[in-house]
Amino acid sequence: MWPDPRSVYSWRTRKRTASCTTPLSYGQIQECISFTQLSLEAYEATKDEQLLRDAYEGCVKWDRWLTANRMTLGTGLIELFCEFDTGHDNSRRLAGLPKGCVDRYGKKRKFLSILISNLFQEHLLDQDMADSIYERHMKNPREFWTPYPFPSMTISDPASVQDLEGNSWGFYSQGLTALRTLRWMDYYGKSEDLEYLMRRWVSAMVLSEDLQFAQELHPVTGKLSKSSPWYSSSMLFFISSVRRLGLLEENL
User: Fold this and answer.
1) Which alpha helices (DSSP H) does the chain contain, by range?
2) Average of pLDDT values for 139-162?
3) What is the pLDDT of residue 5?
């Protein structure tokens, strides 16, 4: 039995009363990295006890909501209902899936979702399993280990096509994905590969016609896309890279 579709993507923006006519709002979840995990890391960095209590209370409610509304198939996996749930805009992997999520009339479609890099980011894998997946997929030059890693979709997939000038999670290597490698590559002993990745991204940025830190770049040529100049994730990854590599005074 599916849950009441009107409750799946609704939340109250303020306390409702009998006279309140403001409609409920609807939208996607797009939780690419566990907010609970990030909250714990924030506490560990700040030792803020009040932050820990507030975050814990909110995260418990969020987990209960996901369990009640996003595990409708009973598999124990969170389900995605629309393309924007993933944050992977314009990915052909999600062809046919609605862009936005369920509306008040309950129009929806369900896919089980799992993103391979999330397994690493959340530190869910033991070392042996991480090494196996990494070597088979992430380090595979026919899949994700391109001259400018990591493409949004394996380049061997027929659906991986450069058909947009930008904002395509079905082709380009994303600055956000690059930034998130800081969460897991050192952790799993892939530091040498991380520094190779850093060099490739820094090179692509400084050799571009204009250093505007676009959202993404071509996974083979390194050419920046025309999407979202001055993209914060790309800038943060660039800063982290030049500091770690000691490139501030080197010729790139």
Assistant:
1) 5-8, 35-46, 49-69, 116-121, 127-133, 175-180, 191-206, 232-245
2) 87
3) 33
Q: CA-to-CA distance for 223 and 233, rounded, in angstroms? A: 17
In degrees and rounded to multiples of 5, residue 224 shows phi and psi of -70, 145
CA angle centred on 31, ends 162 and 44, rounded to 5°: 125
Residues 244 and 198: beta-carbon distance below 8 Å: yes
Kindly state the helix (H) or strand (E) to which residue 80 belongs, with its residue range.
strand 79-80
Distance CA 8, CA 1 (A): 13
What confidence score (pLDDT) does residue 175 get?
A: 94
- Tokens representing residue 240 in the block: 């982290």
Q: What is the pLDDT of residue 158?
A: 78
**Separation of alpha carbons 171 and 23, rounded Å:** 37
Under 8 Å between Cβ of 172 and 243? no
d(Cα 229, Cα 152) in Å, to the nearest integer?
18
pLDDT, tens digit (0-9, with 9 covering 90-100), for 81-129: 777 777 676 676 666 666 666 544 444 433 322 356 777 887 878 999 9
pLDDT at residue number 102: 52
Closest of 156, 130, 143, 151 to residue 197, by C-alpha: 151
Q: What pLDDT, on the 0 to 100 scale, is given for residue 249?
A: 63
**The residue type at 108:** K
What lies within 8 Å, CB to CB, of 246 at 6+ separation is none
Instruction: Indicate the length of the chain as a whole number.
Output: 252
Q: How far is CA 163 from CA 144, 149, 159, 178, 192, in A?
A: 19, 19, 10, 22, 33
* pLDDT tens per residue, range 239-251: 999 999 998 765 5
